[in-house]
UniProtKB/TrEMBL annotation:
Native organism: Brachybacterium endophyticum
GO molecular function: ditrans,polycis-polyprenyl diphosphate synthase [(2E,6E)-farnesyl diphosphate specific] activity; magnesium ion binding; Z-farnesyl diphosphate synthase activity
Residues reported to bind Mg(2+): D65, E252
Cofactor requirement: Mg(2+)
Single GO BP term: polyprenol biosynthetic process
TM helices/strands, residue ranges: none
Region (Disordered): 1-33
Function: Catalyzes the condensation of isopentenyl diphosphate (IPP) with allylic pyrophosphates generating different type of terpenoids.
Name of the protein: Isoprenyl transferase
Family: Belongs to the UPP synthase family. Z-FPP synthase subfamily.
Length: 284
């Protein structure tokens, strides 16, 4: 029997918590999938084959979650967990490029994350800067999304330098969401729109009448880009936490049990397969 759309995202077997902590995966039948073995390669190849008949997302959003919990479950430091998470991002982007997905938005640091302890934040800022540089070094176009002003000056200058030197890529554009909050993005967009309308000499009443959904959309961090077709979140959490709040009105969602450092190519392929099998109604 075919599961209804999204069923895979909600399914948890009795052994799922252990698999999530250890980084092992399971197939839909509940059998372990060894990513170093023949079974994994055959399974991944089958998934890719299934996707050939479908239109893949043109914009994929991903909430990278679970670095600290993975580190704790693995008996290693939080620092190593974040570092492994950063390396996973660059690996994930190569999978997207291979599949022909042209635009990916990666949420690396939220405004809420900025309330963490100074020692962890210092580490996060360094890893973020290194990861952004690595993304650009792979030849991808880098576009910053978020309140970059909230970052320390050294980190801010590094990531801005990467964006300024980034060149248009025919293969993949990456929005790096750092210091990002969905509510903050909408507030920033409205503020910019009001300033632009005020600069035209309009009265307050005229400004109020001129504010529109289209106008706000043109002032978002992702302006000029299509809304995300699919948003993936790792670690088992089933919420968006404000990620692309405006843009995700008609997005499809995939919630994966795996902690981000353990996220594998088959997880992405499963998410894409489920997305392709859904009937998108766009609110109709």
């Amino acid at each position: 029997m075919r599961r209804p759309p999204g069923a895979q995202a909600l399914f948890r077997s009795a052994t799922e918590p252990r698999r999530r902590a250890e980084g092992t995966q399971s197939s839909e039948e509940g059998q372990p999938v060894d990513d170093d073995g023949v079974l994994y390669r055959v399974y991944a190849k089958r998934l890719v084959k299934e996707l050939e008949a479908y239109q893949l997302p043109q914009h994929l959003g991903v909430i990278v979650d679970g670095n600290r919990r993975w580190a704790k479950a693995s008996g290693i430091t939080t620092a190593e967990g974040h570092r492994q998470g950063g390396e996973k991002i660059t690996e994930f982007l190569t999978w997207c490029e291979e599949l022909g997905i042209p635009l990916v938005t990666v949420w690396m640091l939220s405004t809420d994350n900025l309330r963490r302890g100074p020692e962890e934040l210092a580490l996060l800022f360094e890893i973020i800067a290194e990861t952004v540089e690595s993304i650009a070094g792979a030849g991808y176009t880098v576009r910053l999304a978020g309140s970059v002003e909230s970052l320390p000056e050294a980190t801010r200058e590094r990531v801005r330098h990467v964006q300024e030197r980034s060149r248009p890529s025919k293969s993949l554009t990456v929005n790096v969401a750092i210091g990002y909050g969905g509510r903050e993005e909408i507030v920033d967009a409205v503020r910019e729109l009001v300033r632009d309308l005020g600069a035209e000499g309009r009265t307050p009443d005229e400004i109020a009448e001129a504010i529109s959904m289209e106008g706000i959309g043109e002032h978002l961090y992702t302006r000029g880009q299509p809304d995300p077709d699919l948003i993936i979140r790792s670690s088992g959490e089933q919420r968006l936490s404000g990620f692309l709040m405006w843009q995700s009105a008609h997005s499809e969602f995939w919630f994966c049990e795996t902690y981000w450092p353990c996220f594998r190519r088959v997880d992405l392929l499963r998410a894409l397969r489920d997305y392709c099998q859904r009937e998108r109604r766009y609110g109709a």
